[in-house]
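Bump. Still looking for UPF0301 protein FHS89_000422 structure tokens.
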Amino acid sequence: MENEVKDAFLGGQLLVAMPSIGDGRFAQSVIFLWSHDAEGAMGLIVNKPITGLRLSDIVSQVGVDALDPARDMDVHTGGPVDKQRGFLLHSADYQGKDTQEAEHGAFALTATIDALKDVATGQGPAHALLALGYAGWGAGQLEQELQENAWLIAPATPDLVFRTEKAQLWETALATLGVDPRLLSATGGQA
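Sorry for the wait, here they are.
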């Protein structure tokens, strides 16, 4: 019975916002759902870069003198909670201090300055996404939003999360589910 309950949780999946989502901060968002259990859920929006903010703008503040230009990247809005806190979602090939591996394989999460330094100097993971803030749900809140058809659930793959152009990620994630975004209605319903 315990495994059945655990299997119902969605950690390691993508939440893809439906047009009917009631919160404009999440319009056309794709969220990597890092954790989900009976206590609630936590995830990072992975398709909303912050205009004009890049890793190169941040590394000088954490004591890195030079950034490997090949490692520069956009900084994303991870969500509306704790917007000053940084999270590095990355490929599982990197293990830094306090790195947590995803339950379902190819992803890991590190929230330390050392990880940013490693990325900046080319010693970090092969693939990474830096986000400020996160999306959070209390107990039962995400389940309620799923019942209200605010989100679709898609499998998270490194290609989608790290290699897909962010402006196309919402449509691409929908396409993996066989959904054409032009056919989605802004009003939700239940049959």
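The CA atoms of residues 57 and 136 lie 26 Å apart.

Edit: fixed formatting.
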